[in-house]
Design a protein that fits this description.
The complex is a heterodimer. By secondary structure, chain A is mostly beta strands. In chain A, 0% of the residues lie in helices and 54% in strands. The chains are: A mainly beta, B mainly beta.
Chain lengths: 115, 110
């Protein structure tokens, strides 16, 4: 298996633009997690899905952030409009079963820079 | 909500030294995760444990549930072990949502 796939790997955009990050989990995994990593706050969970259903989105910073998982093999994280403080590395991870009890496999991350 | 503390924040060692990284948390949990983040940014899960000890190659992870403490040990450290090591625990008990420590940056010099 190719592992968790994320695209793009790097994104540079201007404030106010819409940004869409994409994730393809490992085939057969039924839990998917979106994380954000910054120097100040470290790794933070934004949202996670189980069987394509959002379970906990309490980590999503504000209404500018939205995430979808239309099917078991694809998820998106959208920021609209983007702001400089959204600059971070965004990781997607997947697991088989609940993330607390099972190993999570991380994608390579998307480094987002908002100017 | 669980609070996670890791120590030390930074650690420099000579090749061959025995390394210990510590993680303490505030709320009882069902499982704790140790992750490794390479200098290039990639994150790999090293261990998930709920009791006792686990070993994988030169890496050993232990957990004391009563004391709410876990340690990650590296025996015969090597420069390729240089990375950031992060522990993660559920926000509450058996929650699926993880909260992460700030990480320990390890540098192993040849």
């Amino acid at each position: 298996d190719a592992g968790v796939i994320q695209s793009p790997r790097h994104e540079v955009t201007e404030m106010g633009q819409e940004v869409t990050l994409r994730c393809k989990p490992i085939s057969g995994h039924n839990s998917l997690f979106w994380y954000r990593q910054t120097m100040m706050r470290g790794l933070e969970l934004l949202i996670y899905f189980n069987n394509n259903v959002p379970i906990d989105d309490s980590g999503m910073p504000e209404d500018r952030f939205s995430a979808k998982m239309p099917n078991a093999s694809f998820s998106t994280l959208k920021i609209q409009p983007s702001e400089p403080r959204d600059s971070a590395v965004y990781f997607c991870a997947s697991s088989f079963g609940a993330g607390n009890y099972n190993e999570q496999f991380f994608g390579p991350g998307t480094r987002l820079t908002v100017l | 909500k669980n609070e996670v503390e890791q120590s030390p924040q930074n650690l420099t060692a000579q090749e061959g030294e025995f390394i210990t990284i510590n993680c303490s948390y505030s709320v009882g949990i069902s499982a704790l995760h140790w992750l490794q983040q390479h200098p290039g940014g990639g994150i790999v899960s090293l261990f998930m444990l709920s009791s006792g000890k686990k070993k994988h190659g030169r890496l050993i992870a232990t957990i004391n549930i009563q004391e709410k403490h876990s340690s990650l040990h590296i025996t015969a450290s090597h420069p390729r072990d240089s990375a950031v090591y992060i522990c993660a625990v559920p926000t509450q008990g058996g929650s699926e949502k993880l909260v992460f420590g700030k990480g320990t940056k390890l540098t192993v010099n040849p």
